[in-house]
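S1.2 Input.
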Amino acid sequence: MTKPLDNRVAIVTGANQGLGYEISKKYIEAGASLMICARNDALLKKSRQELAAMARPGQIVVAMPADVSKQEDVIALVGETLKQFGRFDILVNNAGVYGPKGAIENVVWEEWLSAIAINLFGSILMCRAVLPHFKGAGRGKIIQLSGGGATSPLPMISAYAVSKTAVVRFIETLAEEVRVNHIDVNAVAPGSLNTRMLEEILEAGPEKVGGDFYKRSLKQKGDGGAPLGKGAELAVFLGSSLSDGITGKLISAVWDPWQTLSHHLNDLKRSDIYTLRRIVPKDRGMTWGNDL
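S1.3 Output.
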């Protein structure tokens, strides 16, 4: 039986644990070969072995340590992928961190910048590095992991919120730049996940992350959070031909009917559905501010 990612090669960043590892598993199940990367070499080797054990004949799993915030690592990663496979079809930008927690005037500035470098600059560097190959092939898929920080304020976790918002607008912009090249570029909101990042929040405590967010995080841990598989399945869909033409969107794995989006291509192309936008009074039923 044909699988949605048969004969496709994907690069997945931050793939040694959590959502990145779950996406890699779903990609293997969907027929893809993989280049996975992360900063922790020991965990990465273990993940590669586990993923390779799941692969069918013909599927290959390669791993390479890389820090996506370093241009030299990114260039080496893409070069090694081309050396190993001769091509690649999908980039999944998953690597990310929360960064420092606390009031902006109190956090360590270097840690704040580091979070921006990984979440935002790292994603952009990866896109820059893969685009020449995608443009040469006349096709490609870029899938950017986003988060709740992109759509609502996150007091006390400002580096994460700023970087995740900025990267979504970058994805929307890049999608328009490369639409003519048949490269689809989308962002994924996977939902509130019970991963190591949740444990970071709980360990930091309410003093650093704020009482409300801490309480929500405690409740999320108790409830189980959003299933990892939801975001991973959406990443498979966006990497497959089933999503061809869907581009420049921020899609929720949990709330949006993404399985049927291919039936609404014209609506998506003609509108700002699933994009960041400014709310004006009439959007909320107000009569003021609508005179001009």
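S1.4 Remarks. Strands lie at 9-13, 33-38, 61-65, 90-93, 140-145, 183-189, 250-252.
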